[in-house]
Amino acid sequence: MEKKTLNVQGMTCGHCKMAVEGALKKLDGVSSAEVNLEAANVAVTYDESKVTVEAMKEAIEDQGYEVVL
Ligand SMILES: [Cu+2]
Which class is domain 2-52? Predict the structure, then answer.
Protein backbone atom coordinates (compact mmCIF):
# COMPACT_ATOMS: atom_id res chain seq x y z
CA MET A 1 0.00 0.00 0.00
CA GLU A 2 1.14 3.46 -0.95
CA LYS A 3 0.17 6.70 0.77
CA LYS A 4 -0.05 10.05 -0.93
CA THR A 5 -1.47 13.46 -0.15
CA LEU A 6 -2.97 15.34 -3.08
CA ASN A 7 -3.57 19.07 -2.94
CA VAL A 8 -7.10 19.89 -4.08
CA GLN A 9 -8.46 23.36 -4.81
CA GLY A 10 -12.11 24.34 -4.54
CA MET A 11 -13.31 22.23 -1.61
CA THR A 12 -15.30 24.38 0.78
CA CYS A 13 -17.69 22.26 2.83
CA GLY A 14 -18.79 18.81 3.94
CA HIS A 15 -20.42 18.17 0.60
CA CYS A 16 -17.13 18.75 -1.21
CA LYS A 17 -15.39 16.47 1.27
CA MET A 18 -17.92 13.69 0.64
CA ALA A 19 -17.79 14.16 -3.14
CA VAL A 20 -14.01 13.89 -3.30
CA GLU A 21 -13.74 11.03 -0.82
CA GLY A 22 -16.59 9.16 -2.52
CA ALA A 23 -15.09 9.53 -5.99
CA LEU A 24 -11.73 8.23 -4.80
CA LYS A 25 -13.16 5.31 -2.83
CA LYS A 26 -15.06 4.19 -5.94
CA LEU A 27 -11.75 3.55 -7.70
CA ASP A 28 -10.53 -0.02 -7.55
CA GLY A 29 -7.34 -0.05 -5.48
CA VAL A 30 -8.11 2.92 -3.23
CA SER A 31 -8.51 1.70 0.33
CA SER A 32 -8.97 5.02 2.10
CA ALA A 33 -9.42 8.70 1.32
CA GLU A 34 -9.54 11.42 3.96
CA VAL A 35 -10.11 15.06 3.06
CA ASN A 36 -8.70 17.82 5.23
CA LEU A 37 -10.69 20.92 4.28
CA GLU A 38 -8.47 23.41 6.15
CA ALA A 39 -5.32 22.07 4.54
CA ALA A 40 -7.08 21.71 1.15
CA ASN A 41 -5.84 18.21 0.58
CA VAL A 42 -6.83 14.58 0.55
CA ALA A 43 -4.75 11.76 2.02
CA VAL A 44 -5.14 8.59 -0.02
CA THR A 45 -4.02 5.06 0.74
CA TYR A 46 -3.94 2.93 -2.38
CA ASP A 47 -2.52 -0.10 -4.12
CA GLU A 48 -0.13 1.26 -6.75
CA SER A 49 -0.50 -1.91 -8.84
CA LYS A 50 -4.23 -1.21 -9.27
CA VAL A 51 -4.67 2.54 -9.48
CA THR A 52 -2.55 5.46 -10.66
CA VAL A 53 -2.25 8.98 -9.31
CA GLU A 54 -3.45 10.14 -12.73
CA ALA A 55 -6.69 8.14 -12.34
CA MET A 56 -7.24 9.65 -8.88
CA LYS A 57 -6.59 13.13 -10.26
CA GLU A 58 -9.18 12.55 -13.00
CA ALA A 59 -11.75 11.23 -10.51
CA ILE A 60 -11.35 14.38 -8.42
CA GLU A 61 -11.49 16.66 -11.45
CA ASP A 62 -14.67 14.90 -12.64
CA GLN A 63 -16.26 16.16 -9.42
CA GLY A 64 -15.31 19.73 -10.33
CA TYR A 65 -12.21 20.25 -8.22
CA GLU A 66 -8.68 21.08 -9.26
CA VAL A 67 -5.74 18.88 -8.27
CA VAL A 68 -2.39 20.61 -7.88
CA LEU A 69 0.41 18.07 -8.10
CU1 LIG B 1 -18.86 22.07 -0.75
Answer: alpha beta
| 3-state secondary structure (DSSP) of residue 11 | coil
Distance from Cα 26 to the centre of ligand 1, integer Å: 19
Q: Does pTM top 0.85 for this prediction?
A: yes
How far apart are the CA of 32 and the centre of ligand 1, in A?
Answer: 20
Distance of CA 36 from the midpoint of ligand 1 (Å) = 13
CA dist 69 and 67 (Å) reads 6
**pLDDT, tens digit (0-9, with 9 covering 90-100), for 30-40:** 999 999 999 99
Residues paired with 5 in a beta bridge: 43
